[in-house]
Amino acid sequence: MNTHRLKRPLSALSAATLLAALVAAPVPVRAEPSLGSGGPTATQGANADSVQTRSPDRSDSPAEADAGSEAITDTVLQVGADSTARNLSWMSESAGGGEIRWAPASELVGGKLPADADKAETTDSGLAADLKRHFNHASMTDLKPGIDYAYQVGSEEDGYTEVQQFTTGSAGGDDEFLVFGDPQVGAGGGDPDDAAGWDRTLSSAAATADDPSFFYSLGDQVNSAGNQEQYAQYLAPEATRTIPQATTIGNHDVSSKAYEQHFNRPNVSQDHGGGGVITSGGDYWFIEDGVLFLNINSNSPDMDAHAEFIDEVVAEHGDQARWTVLGFHHSIYSTATHWDDLDVKRLRKAIPPVAARNDIDLVVSGHDHIYNRTFLMDGEGKPVEGSEAGAEEEKEDGQTLYLTLTSSSGSKFYDYVPGLDWEGKSVHNDVPAFTRVRVSDEALRATTYEVPAGGPPADGERAEAQAAAEQIDDVELRRAEAEEPAPDDDAGADAGSGASAGADSAAGADDAGANDDADSAGTSDDADAGADDAGTSDDADAGAEDAGTSDDAGTGGTASDSAASDGAASGGVGSDGTDDENGTDSGTADAGTADSGSEADATEANAAGTGDDSDSSGTASASGDGDLPRTGGGLALPLAVGAGALALGATLLVVSRRRRGAGLS
Questions:
Q1: Cis peptide, bond prior to residue 352, ω within 30 of zero
Q2: pTM higher than the cut 0.90
């Protein structure tokens, strides 16, 4: 009798204990074995297995170059791992078997590629997210600097596209690239016509710039993540096929695989900011114009993983670049209504110390549909003393300039919030804009223009295009020059070579000390990991965020996203989903549950979470030093608890089975 009474309670208890052990056991962030070296073997997916061949004779040439197959759509020219590579994506009617063909434009014969053009087969392809077409990725490699190239994509089954041309950047000279805030094609619902607005902005920027090596879109390329028609409109401008682009994933892009299928990004890490089964993601990097560009998926709340990604890439590739730029969607230093969102506050606490210890020069973001430039900011997220947000900024190591880019299509704009500590220069005219960044060894110069209502002049003359586009900001970022030692006085000069040697030795000692200090700072970041893990309040704030944080609260717009296409299943990536312009979030929150909070609910949730970011500059940190939680020591306690629970559960199962056996006998 006693045995039968004990059997079920013990079995239930042991099963519950085992379940608790599995839940309690943490899954640590995994670092990639190698983030690559920048060459063809370093890239993931499309670049890793690229097969490059030469056509043996003209019989292998594709269809007439000017035919333009209708079976191929959505061709996108993109950056590669560095300036020697360019990635391509396109949609096709047929599955697999596609290729890219390219050659210097000087080798074109009657507008057609030569018979011996380089070829590379698709390295990734599959059924598109809309289940109607197939996506294709391929890469051009071994490109030379400063050369005009021609290319086309396609297959024998579907035919080939028209021949397009692009120009590679210079080798270490002066270059420039373009930056755009949210195009969010589809958000205007046709009024305004944001597809036409995006085309006008991109055309104006291309006409204003001096042969940009690529353009950079900072997220929310489309309004509804799985909407193929909106992607077609975003990719409609000719510049998307003639100027390479890089993209950052926004909250409106994350909840579908369509983003990953349309954009063949280089050096993608699925271990850092990765997507899920039906969501997109992945932090990635590339080097262009002598600049190391890092992109993180700011929809993912795993700040530890983002920090690990940035630390590792900069450590491995930072010395290959003259400047370092970080891009992500959710601006942490905007002057519009998203500044106080819980996900933004979490980023604002996490990013500055990582940017400082990696000496990130410039951070570019979107999301808030307003333009703002900060003062130079330090590792604690505070304006650097003496920074005046003028036309010239001289930065010391560990200081960073942050730019928030406004809408590039005019689909919507947000209200200006005055009085924030980081505001250096803010422009809120509700006019689409773009930023032109010129790169040299000495400086990064970012000039921002508002787009003329009529677009660029018809003749396309650069001087006229620049005159038509109204300049609203211009800043040149330089590094502070190292202080030269004070000249020796006469007594020192008369002391002879021994004194000179001593001075040199002392200088060397000073340099060593400076390096030691820098290294110590980096080491102390890691040493504090355990304290950060134990004391961070980010996870606690997630509940308040899920309770009703509105992504676009109070914007007053009219368009609303479809929950099926834009707000679904982003919990696996930690996305706050997509926004309903009336102030209600119809997407998915961090925990995967749908938010339904009104603007008032969002305010309440934000107020509840102010411990995460208590002052107006957003610099408060649970750990006291503003650093990120790190993997390692902080996992010891939950691992021990999980192991103990597993052992207890196993013991209880054994006892229950023995008692059951005794009862049956």
A1: no
A2: no
